[in-house]
Design a protein that fits this description.
The complex is a heterodimer. By secondary structure, chain A is mostly helical. Chain A has helices spanning about 5-10, 15-20, 30-45, 45-50, 85-125, 125-140, 145-155, 160-185, 190-195, 200-235, 250-260, 265-290. Classes of the chains: A mainly alpha, B mainly alpha.
């Protein structure tokens, strides 16, 4: 039997617990964050998690299928490739390469693009003309073809790829950020800063930059997937990360040779890795876009 | 020029005075002056100027990168050449001359349509490019057809059933298209349809069967883009007043969607499709590589694999030029249709 006091207590539980109860999981990108966290975890602890050396194989153990198929063993859970290297270990280390290249290239592109976008938008005049003409030209080039061209002339290496992807994709940031700056510089706080005697440099650094950084982050999260696919494509074509490093694109290129004989595990697993990573990056990017910046919805 | 014509062109010569003495000039010069005073021709001249500037910057970028990233002679000689050969190449291509002279010569040969000689095929790059181009266009057309056949109906379904099954299904389709690398889709299709089922040929060109898988692999990404745009464009149109009026008149749903909404929603989608068709010709390298499709993407790949540098450079320059020119044509067409564009700025 309940007393009136019980009835009164029920709707007022402890405030902190109530706050947790109010978080609805569908308001947050739980699935992409979980996938990204798992991929980041295996990338960081690849040394501890990988059962074999990813770059050295045992030739007598070539083309072993995954463990659940006839001929597979639990020693090589996801099978081995044409050099007898463990596919699982290569996948784990490959996550590291994809994440490192993806994030550094996006940050590099973002830094260059944001810098030039602010400069172009705030200073205007001939600076604006020069930067925007260059941006237009680079946007006209098919980004991937241009990246392949650059990679073909500078030669394969992981850091070359980061720089190439950075200088290929900065233009999109420059475009968007310039547009934001053009409207920001007409706002009151910027005018007040001018009246207060701030130098152009100070205004750009202290007043403009903090206001465009949100857009840069949102754009960056959307670019992450593009850049990861670009890296995989370059590696697949043999102008990206050089062998024997375990990049996912490179694994797919190895897998292509065993495709017609039916060694499907060499093709399916690295592709799933790329797909999950890009999928969660895209979902996260979409969420951030809606959350932070309604203006970008039109992009 | 009648008053009607001046109002239609939006430019009144009585307001913008002709240059002094213009009335006295006659014939070709007068015609030229009048031509230059038309907003439309001014727009075309200005826009063409930008396109020329873009082409100039494009050539400069490629010229600059080739020379900054190392000795172009190393790229121009076949691997394993002796130092004497390298020196001969230096002299032959004028690499021992000042940079601006080199750039001038580079531009002169470009202007003559001369992109150099392929090492591997021993024929001019331009000829090679033109012989491969039809295959690329064929693939792009097939991929475009596929992407529109899937993207437009799916986009309409999603817009009509917002938030329900078709919309969710469409979102999933879009997300997968944007998240799976085209070459992986291609590899999976080869695995399924060529290796296991044996239905389709895994590589080469020639019969209609050959084009199905490459077109699908290339087209999925674009189908996703077309679907997204169709959906948002359709939603915008469906929310407009004239659609409400059509519904108030009591027209059946299918008629409203098929006749009133669809036509207007299609305009931005077809514009995007036009731009994408050119992009498809130029980004198909990885799909062409997977399916051994003999287009310009495959030519670029061969150029990289055989260190055939003139081919690589030529394909990139021509690809960039193609996109700059198509953008120019589209902008001019827009200006023809929409006076706000040619009068703006």
């Amino acid at each position: 039997m309940s007393t009136p006091t019980d009835v009164i207590r029920l709707p007022s539980p402890q405030p902190r617990l109530a706050a947790i109860g109010r978080i609805r999981f569908r308001d947050y990108p739980v699935i992409p964050l979980t996938i990204l966290a798992i991929i980041a975890f295996v990338a960081i602890f690849a040394n501890q998690l990988a059962p074999h050396n990813p770059e050295v194989g045992i030739l007598s153990a070539r083309f072993k299928p995954p463990f659940w198929l006839h001929g597979g063993s639990t020693e090589y859970l996801l099978g081995t490739d044409q050099l007898g290297r463990d596919v699982l270990s290569r996948l784990l280390f490959g996550a590291r390469i994809s994440l490192v290249v993806g994030f550094t290239a996006v940050i590099f592109a973002g830094a260059v693009g944001t810098f030039l976008g602010i400069l172009s938008g705030y200073l205007g005049g001939w600076v604006d003309q020069v930067v925007m003409r260059i941006t237009d030209t680079w946007l006209a080039l098919p980004a991937l073809t241009f990246a392949i061209f650059l990679a073909a002339i500078v030669g394969p290496s992981m850091w070359n790829i980061v720089i190439i992807l950075g200088i290929t994709y900065w233009t999109r940031y420059a475009r968007v950020i310039r547009g934001e700056v053009l409207s920001l510089k007409e706002r009151e706080f910027v005018r007040l800063a001018i009246v207060a005697g701030c130098s152009k440099r100070t205004i750009m650094r202290r007043h403009i930059l903090p206001n465009v950084i949100n857009s840069a982050v949102v754009l960056g999260s959307l670019m992450l997937g593009v850049v990861i696919i670009a890296e995989a494509t370059l590696s697949f074509l043999g102008v990206g990360v050089p062998p024997p490093q375990p990049a996912w694109g490179l694994m797919l290129s190895d897998g292509k040779q065993g495709l017609m004989v039916g060694y499907w595990w060499l093709t399916v697993f690295p592709g799933i890795g790329i797909m999950l990573l890009v999928l969660s990056a895209n979902l996260l990017g979409d969420w951030l876009r809606v959350k932070f910046d309604p203006q970008l919805r039109q992009l | 020029m009648s008053d009607y014509a001046t109002t239609q062109t939006g430019h009144d010569p009585r307001l913008a005075l002709p240059p002094p003495g213009a009335a006295a000039w006659s014939g070709a010069v007068g015609w030229l002056l009048r031509f230059l005073h038309q907003p439309m021709s001014r727009f075309i001249i200005k826009r063409s100027g930008y396109a020329l500037l873009s082409l100039f910057l494009l050539s400069l970028t490629i010229f600059f990168f080739v020379r900054v990233t190392g000795d172009p002679a190393a790229l121009l000689v076949e691997p394993g050449a002796s130092p004497g050969d390298v020196a001969a190449i230096h002299h032959q291509f004028g690499l021992d001359r000042p940079l601006w002279v080199q750039y001038w010569l580079f531009m002169v040969s470009l202007a003559h349509g001369d992109l150099g000689q392929s090492f591997y095929y021993q024929t001019p790059v331009m000829g090679l490019y033109l012989s491969r181009l039809p295959y690329s266009i064929e693939l792009a057309a097939a991929a475009m057809l596929f992407s529109l056949l899937i993207g437009i109906p799916a986009g309409i379904l999603a817009a009509v059933h917002v938030g329900r099954f078709w919309d969710q299904f469409g979102k999933l389709f879009t997300l997968l298209g944007l998240s799976m690398p085209a070459f992986w889709i291609g590899l999976l299709m080869i695995l399924l349809f060529s290796v296991y089922l044996g239905w389709l040929p895994s590589s080469g060109a020639g019969t209609p069967w050959h084009i199905i898988m490459p077109a699908f692999a290339l087209g999925w990404y674009f189908a996703a883009a077309h679907m997204r745009l169709t959906r948002s464009s359709m939603l915008e149109v469906l929310g407009s007043e004239y659609i409400k009026l059509a519904r108030l008149k009591g027209l059946p749903q299918t008629l409203v969607i098929a006749k009133h909404a669809f036509k207007n929603a299609l305009i931005p989608v077809l514009t995007l499709a036009g731009i994408n068709l050119v992009l498809m010709v130029n980004v198909a390298i990885v799909v062409e590589y997977v399916f051994a499709w003999p287009g310009i993407g495959r030519l670029l790949y061969e150029g990289i694999a055989f260190r055939d540098f003139p081919v690589v450079q030529g394909v990139v320059i021509l690809g960039g030029a193609m996109i700059v020119l198509v953008n120019l044509v589209i902008d001019i067409l827009y200006a023809v249709i929409d006076p706000r564009i040619r009068l703006g700025n």
